[in-house]
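Technical annex B. To support the medicinal chemistry partners, we prepared a structural model of the target in complex with coenzyme A, based solely on the information shown next.
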Amino acid sequence: MYGFGDMIKVLKKSPKKIVFTEGTDPRILEAASRLLASNFLHPILVGNEDEIFDASEESGFNIRGAEIIDPAKFDRMDEMVEMFCELRKSKGVTPEQAKETLSQANYFGTMLVKMGMADALLGGATYTTADTVRPALQLIKTKPQNSIVSSVYILVRPRATGENEVLAMADCAINIHPNEDELAEIAVEAAECAKIFGVDPKVAFLSYSTFGSGEGEDVDKMRNAAQKAKLRAPELEIEGEMQFDAAVSPRVARTKCPDSKLAGHINTFIFPDINAGNIGYKIAQRLGSFEAYGPILLGLNSPVNDLSRGCNASEVYSMAIITAALA
Ligand SMILES: CC(C)(COP(=O)(O)OP(=O)(O)OC[C@H]1O[C@@H](n2cnc3c(N)ncnc32)[C@H](O)[C@@H]1OP(=O)(O)O)[C@@H](O)C(=O)NCCC(=O)NCCS
C-alpha cells in the first residue's frame, strides 16, 4: 500500500492547510494537537476562540499554534458573502441569507477552501454526512470532467506475509440510486483513487447474477454500467455483472465464469446502490477485520471528506492525512 509514510513525505515537501469544522470536539482537538506536533499539515479550527481553548484545556490537548477562525469575527466576511452569493446566484441567495448560512461552521469552513485560505476540509465528527457533503457539492462543485461527486472506501488488512491486502469499495456513502452512467463514472473514479493506495485495480460491477445467470432490471443495470465503464476507460480492467463470490474466489470463478480472467481476483468493487455498498463495506470492516478509510469523496474540485460520527481521534488523524494528500 502507498502508506501514510509516503503521504507524509509528500506533505512534508509541500505542507497543506486543512480546515476542521468542529473546532471544539475533543477528537478533533486530539488529532489537531498531533498534527501540530509534526510540521506537514497545518490545522485550521473553525469556532469561537475561547470555547476552543476551554475545550482543549478540558480535554488536555495542546493546540498552541493552531489557526482558529471564528465566523463571527472573520475579517474577510464581506468578501466571503459576495463570493457565496455569486456561487449560489442561480438560487437567488441574498447577502442576508448568505450571512446566516455562513454563520454555520460547515458552510464557513467550505468557503475557506473555496477562497484558497485552506487546501482541504475534514468534517463530520458531529455533522451528518449530508450536512458535511452538501456545502461541498454546492460551493466546491464537481470537476469539469465529472458529472457527480461519489465516494470510495479503502479497506486494508494485514496478510500473514506481512504486506497489506488493500481493496476499494464504491459508492458506499453518497449516491443513493446511481444510474448506469453514474455507476460507470463511480467505477473509473474509484479505480483511479485505488491506484493512489497502491492497488492495481481489477474492477467488478457486483450483482446477484454472474454474466447472465440471473435476470432482472438490476442485473441489466450492472451489466450495462460495466460496458459503459469499459468505453470510458478502456485501459482499466473491468468486468461485470458478477456475484461477490465469483469476484473474490478463484475456485467459484472457475465454476461460474471460467472465461473471465479477472473473476476471482477483483480488488475494486462497484455496488449497485448505497444500501448494498454501505452494508458491504461494513461487513468487511466488522466481520472481515479490515480497517476502513473513508468515505473518500471523488470528483470534487478540492478535497473535502466526511468522518463517521462514531470516529476516534486516530481516525480523524488518518483521514486528515489522506484528505490533505489528495490536495
Ligand atoms: C449527497 C447528499 C447528502 C445530497 O443530499 P441533498 O443535499 O439533500 O441533495 P439535494 O438533491 O438537495 O442537492 C443539493 C445540491 O447538491 C447537488 N448534488 C446532490 N447530489 C450530488 C452528487 N452526487 N454529485 C454532485 N452534486 C450533487 C445538487 O445538484 C444540489 O445542487 P444545487 O443546490 O446547486 O442545486 C445525498 O445524496 C445523501 O444524503 N446521500 C446519502 C448520505 C448518507 O446518508 N450516507 C450514508 C452514511 S456515510
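Notes passed to the chemistry partners:
Residues 180-196 form the longest helix (17 residues).
The mean pLDDT is 94.
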